[in-house]
Amino acid sequence: MIKSGFLSKRERRELESVVRCPSEDHGIARKCNALLLLDDGWSCERASQVLYLDDDTIRTWYKKYAEGGFDLILHDRRPPKYETSRQAGFIFGRSSVISLQFMLKLPVWKTGGLDLKSGY
């Protein structure tokens, strides 16, 4: 059980400002929201039900915050799957008709910026 009140007033204000900012990254805002609920005395199980997450995910976020603070929460991102659009084109199989048809239906952000007409 995580004890409530582990956040300082300053830390709590920082997390609240992230949660309330409409332009903030959704994943970071969810982490901040979970930490605020834990600070309010909610259990990991209860917070996970409200946020539709696994309770182990909430525990992991708390541990990372306890180890590295707000900066670790902000920078806890997976590396991009593809470094460049050229790699994305190679991995998707530029010459494959099926892959090209599939990619034409994807939004730009899922193609890694690949220009489908030129293949680069």
- Estimate percent helicity: 55-70%
Low-confidence stretches: 82-103
**Which oligomeric state applies?**
single chain
Total number of helices: 6
Structural class: mainly alpha
Mean pLDDT: 75
Q: Radius of gyration over alpha carbons?
A: 20 Å
Describe the structure.
The chain is mostly helical. The protein is built from six helices and no strands. The longest helix has 20 residues, at 55-74. It is globular, with a radius of gyration of 20 Å. The chain starts with 8 loop residues before the first helix and ends in a 16-residue tail after the last helix. 12% of the residues are buried. Residues 82-103 have low confidence and may be disordered.
Draw up the topology in text.
Layout: H1 9-20, H2 26-39, H3 44-51, H4 55-74, H5 85-92, H6 97-104
Brief description of this entry?
The protein has 120 residues and is mostly helical. It is built from 6 helices and no strands.
Give the key terms.
mainly alpha; 120 residues; 6 helices; 0% strand; globular; 58% helix
